[in-house]
Amino acid sequence: MRLNDRVFGMLMLILAFGYGWEATQFPEPFGGGESVGPETFPIILSFLLGISAVYLLLKPDPDEAWPASKMLLELSAVALAILVFAWAIEPLGFIPAAIMIVSYLCWRMGAKPKNSLLTGTISSVVMFLIFNNVLELALPLGLLEF
Amino acid sequence: METINLLMQGFAVALTPESIMFAIIGSILGTLIGALPGLGPANGVAILIPLAFSLGLSPTSSLILLTSVYAGAMYGGRISSILLNIPGDEPAMMTCLDGYPMALKGKAAEALAISAIASFIGSLIATIGLVILAPILAKFALKFGPAEYFALFALAFATLGGITGKNQFKTLMAAALGLMIASVGIDISSGVQRYTFNTLELFEGVDFIIAIVGLFAISELLFFIEKHAGDGMKKVAVNRLKLTMKDVIKVLPSSIRGALLGFVAGVLPGAGASLGSFVSYTLEKKIVGANGEFGKGDPRGVAAPEAGNNGAASGALVPMLTLGVPGSGTTAVLLAMLISLNVTPGPMLFQQNADLVWGVIAALFVGNLVLLLLNIPMVGIFVKLLSIPPKYLMPIVTLVASVGIYSVSHSALDLYFMVAFGVVGYILRKVDIPLVPVILGMLLGPEMEKSLRHALVLSDGDWGALFNSGLSIGLWVVAILGLVLPMIIGPIVRSKMKQAKTGD
């Protein structure tokens, strides 16, 4: 199967068109246009991307296998978990958020739940202490503030 | 003479207690980063940049810290090559060929010690080469006008795939994507908003440090999970070291030859450390001929590629410092740090920031000595750390990377961007698009566009100005060769490398 490169090449071709078209729509800079404006370089880039996208469409390489849909779900869950961690740093505080993400990742990578929780707790507390006391970069305490 | 004076001033910077401390910390961290399979030097340096940044270290200190990490990673790569038969990074691949058989024969400690000495010789000779060559190249580069710079940037992208590059169009595509990301934000010379979609956060453009950490570290995490690689690999036990002076002298010529070849490969665009270690190994095999036991655990087969790989690593700093054009992933990341510290690499660096450049070069000497001293007695500790399974290590590395990004601006939005880049990096790697040109495009985009504009404004819009001088035509010719040659020679070199790996 050589579907990967074809699909990706198609997407990049669309991106090249969109990017190039957008460049032609830039407002004229204040004080009149010069021989090279803000759109010149992007237009060159859209051609570069377009040509290489066409090459991928015409001569695709053999595919690297995509993981099964179960694994894709797993990977999406990991990405989502890091997003939740990012969101939680401020309202919940660094330590709870970090314990959650490290334990979750350890667990998903195959560690036992107990060991995961232990790794998460130790690494989060150590990291917090190092950052706050040694490096003097304040991380939010959140819930633990009181 | 002038160079020696400047270098002495550099040592005055590099030998302050503070600098030595950063060199030691950097060397230890670097060795660890290099030794852990899957982390890799570019990745490791990328994770440390935001930390160095948010700690408010001075440019000199951060550069010393990160160049020691860079040098250390090159040393560390060999540990997993020898003990696990898995290269910590790509250039360390050739070290597996004789290092692992040596370890299987119960000579792991000797292999580690010899490779440490060879690494030291490689870096030492190449750093001397850097001292000699860099000022000359910097002086020469002062002749470059905007047209020449534009051609030089094009050359950097064209040769980035290297002689061994598989699909040149994918390299080009990656470069185009990186340059496109760099064009997001308010255009500096006209004030026009480009691709910001009126989002305030995009006005300043996309921060390349976030992109680097996301593309490298987060995508790596996803790959680890997909491959169920959480348990790590079985490694060979390390014996007690029995190394005599005679053994060391026996590998000296191999190391010196490897170092010189590696340095040349590092300086040349498109060659890089992988080719450096490959050429050193094959040449050594030819020179030693039938007297050697290459592929079965010959110490010279460990020394030559290790010296070559470290020589190339220092050699790669020459184009990065003098021209501002990096030739490898890790030097690209070092360039990212220079730019974020507001230090513009290129010929002017040697005039305006002489103390910084020479301090860093002197720190390379100091760092190498530290690494040699660390690596022989402390190798046992590094080996112990190697046995921590990735299932515990990768989550912690992810945490360190995220905290680094978070502490720069204290905004969760940066972390969302990091995750997005991680997912993009995962997809790009799945379709075999290399990530380094994307990063390089983001870094060089603004400068490249600026030189194009300057050249065209000076010539009043005449595109012929880009090919007006002999120098720029020469650069374009090399760029085109760099793009076309790998399509012809690439398959030959690759099959040779494969042959060497499987044992002919």
UniProtKB/TrEMBL annotation, chain A:
Keyword Disulfide bond: no
Top-level lineage group: Bacteria
Keywords of the record: Membrane, Transmembrane, Transmembrane helix
Membrane-spanning residues: 41-58, 70-88, 94-110, 117-135
Domain named DUF1468: residues: 7-140
Pfam family, one: TctB
KW Transmembrane helix (keyword) present: yes
The name this protein goes by in its record: Tripartite tricarboxylate transporter TctB family protein
UniProtKB/TrEMBL annotation, chain B:
Superkingdom in the source lineage: Bacteria
Residue ranges constituting the DUF112 domain according to the UniProt record: 20-440
Pfam families in UniProt: TctA (PF01970)
Keywords from the named record: Membrane, Transmembrane, Transmembrane helix
Transmembrane segments: 20-39, 45-71, 111-137, 149-165, 172-193, 205-225, 259-281, 323-344, 356-386, 392-408, 415-445, 465-489
Entry annotated with the keyword Glycoprotein: no
InterPro entries reported in the protein's UniProt record: DUF112_TM (IPR002823)
Protein name (Swiss-Prot/TrEMBL): Tripartite tricarboxylate transporter permease
Organism annotation: Marinomonas phaeophyticola
